Amino acid sequence: MASRIVSFELCGREVEVLVKPMTTLQFVLRNQLGYTGTKEGCRQGGCGSCTVLVDGEPMMSCLLPVEDVAGRRVTTIEGITPVEGLAPIQQAFVDTNAFQCGYCTPGMVMLTTALLDHNPAPSREEAVEALGGNVCRCTGYAPIIDAIEAASASATGDATRDAGVMPDRSGER
Length: 173
Prior knowledge:
Layout: E1 4-10, E2 13-19, H1 25-32, E3 51-54, E4 57-60, E5 73-75, H2 77-80, H3 88-95, H4 105-118, H5 124-130, H6 142-162
Parallel strand pairs: 1-5
Antiparallel strand pairs: 1-2, 3-4, 3-5
Helix pairs in contact: 3-6
């Protein structure tokens, strides 16, 4: 079969890649586009280290043919990381020591991003359930769940504190 060009949005910018049929999104991200934050673990969909968001939904990029993301929005760990500093979810992982080797961390952060986008205040049980497809062999899951709770508390605290306050465009409050 012939190669073809696939276009999609990656972390806010349009990209085009020339791929052979059934090339995985993971391969394209890491090897063609240089987005190495998406890890290469089991390559069978069993560990979750390759988790990315496709139109806001977590998906394992090792199982996903890149043709399936044509015209869609793909977000990797690089896409949620601000130019300076860390995203609140990433900071929560640091603050709660929710990683050791760090290999699973990008997938866990992406999964947490989707969870909190859909449910800003998940229960501990909902956080545990959401992590079901992602494996961590170093820290166990308690610090990761603590990070999810911390990120949730931070986000809901910010939303409550700023509710009803219109921003002052002059830079003064």
